[in-house]
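Lecture 7 notes: from sequence to structure.

We start with a single chain of 765 residues. Read the sequence below before looking at the structure.
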Amino acid sequence: MDHRTIEEKILLGVTAAAILILSPFLIESVFQHNHLRTLVDLVAVGGISVIFIGVWFTSKVKFFSGLFAIIAHANILFGIYIVGNDLIFWLFPIIIASFYLLPTFIACLLNVLLISIAGVLTYQQFDEFSLPLIMASLVVTGIFSLIFSIFMQRKNRQLLEKDKISQLRNNILELIASSSKLSKVLAAVVEGIENELPRAMCSISLLDDTGKQLRLAAAPSLPAFYNEAIDTVNIADASGTCTQSVALGKRIIVADIASHPNWLPLAHLANQAKLVSCWSEPIISHHGNVLGTIAIYFDRLSKPTDIEINLVEQFVNLTRIAIERDKADNIIWHQANFDSLTNLPNRHLLHEHLTNAVDNAERDKKQLVIAMLDLDNFKDVNDSLGHGAGDSVLIECANRIKSTIRKNDIVARLGGDEFIIAFVGTTVPEDIDKIGQKLLSTLAKPYIIDHKNVYCTASIGLAFYPNDASTIEELLRNADQAMYRAKSRGRNSIHYFTENMSTDFLKRMEIMRDLRIAVEQKQFYMVYQPIVNLTTSRITKAEALIRWKHPQKGMISPLDFIHVAEEIGLIVEMSEWIFDEVSQQVNTWRKAYCPELTISINTSPVQYKNNGAQINAWADSLLLRGIPCEAISLEITEHLLMENQLEAVDALDKVRLHGMSVAIDDFGTGYSSFAYLKDFDFDYLKIDQRFVQNMSANNKDTALCEAIIVMASKLKMSVIAEGIETEQQKQLLINAGCTFGQGYLFAKPLSVGDFEALLIEQNTK
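Now the structure, written as tokens:
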């Protein structure tokens, strides 16, 4: 029964009840051997049973309802004719039921015939008082049944209308809840209004982002030429009804378009479209802002009734919900797919773009070029000027990139100062070179922050699809490797991915993994290379150098693992171990063999972060353990000063106050070596071995070394020459006034035991 309609259930219930009620009468007439009564009851029960079975198996409610009413009318008249006036009282339920079972007019007609024929058949069986009374009762019953039937039909129509509106509302709400496209929801709203208002044509227009124009969003029933005319309307023009409704934020009703002054610019179009009246209802958000308007047109002079206004207001509320939901969905989508600072696509949306670009490149048999772009020295901007200045640089950088690349190209921000550019449909390397060089020159221009020029160049790595990689992940990884190579080779440059980089990358990954294990298992040991006083030939200094002996791979060069340790942050932990080893060893050697011995330790830019906390902690540790701070010297490079200038200055000034000395290593190889001598206080200057190894009488390298030594002397710094391998080099340096020397002429880096033996031998002499 659950799947049956309400009409089926009622008819089945009524016929079943009639069978149950009439069956006892049939049985009684059989036992009383009243054959005429039995025939009448049998016809009634049989006919109703046939109707019950027919409805049960066919669900043809209208057919069997009419058949039921006709059988009831015919059977009761047949019964009265055969049995007599005893059955006349069955006319009352039949009259009432006929108005439910049959259309009103047919029910009235059959009931009139029923009452008339019943009166003719029974008028001789009643006295002259009873018959008029019964006939009057039957007529009154018919009239009241007619009135009640009409009333119920109206109520049913009202309920159906409400159900229809509710169904429309539910359908629209379902579209909103399922995040359907706004255009689909608005079309459903228009359809709903036009269904409820006869001969109405509806349109919905929405305000654009500027709030100055109305854009047509839905108007399926209006003529195309009219829709084209109102597709974009300026609010300031005040033409038509919608602009006024939006401007005032209230309902505007125009009963006669032809005579209204606001409609003069559009009157000829309205007349051509047969639009006579118009009514505009503003769509207002829950914040009180106007979002748009719904306009209802009529082809006749018309004003809306209160019921119609209430009806449209319900649809306006649904439209408001749909618009606000669409805006919220757009905001959520934008936040999920775009970088909040630069408004560029983020990593998530980039992957979608790249997927489409790769598919298109595969289909069209073209190349796709991925560029990984990273700003050089961006950290200095944040550290020196603050993160607000850094954000300004990133925003300006994003704008410069967008203005440089082509319309079809894709740019996204991965995070930090990293950007990805996809050059779509480019096959000629010369084009990539031109765009890349233009990017470099554009990004190298000064950024004006707080009326100051800030310089921030870029390093770019390029990878090609499908030559360099066949997947998006591989493309990005290879472009990143190429960018890393561009940085390592001087920055502010472009580098293409090569197969060697992939090998280098795997090697770096392997070193990273092994390095973490080496730190945990302490696979390192220290060696010491003597630094000799060139005048006295005494060893008063040495440089501590770390060595790594892998259990399976043997010795691994510092050139292969030091820069990796800096990248992954392990250099801090390694440096702490180096300091502990060296400080304990130098304390032992100073007490036993050489009281003035100083061991120098190479430092990394990473150690000067957080205001040089690790370097300052070393000085405090020496003081706590009673080790003179003069026992340790710190070696720094120009690269260190470039990356951590402000933090390095503060940290080095503090440790020098405690007595630790500072040496600038590899002097002469950088672009700004001489400039740093002016801004920093150094105790020692180490001439790079590339100058020393090429020294000979009267050559340029000798002249440069002599100049450096004189300059250092004027600045009250001692000079240490690295890489001395011959007696000639030694003598030339002595003649130039160099104080200390370091190189294979004196000794290679020595183990703890060998270096200690050298100190013992020196003391013996």
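The radius of gyration is 50 Å. Keep this in mind for problem set 3.
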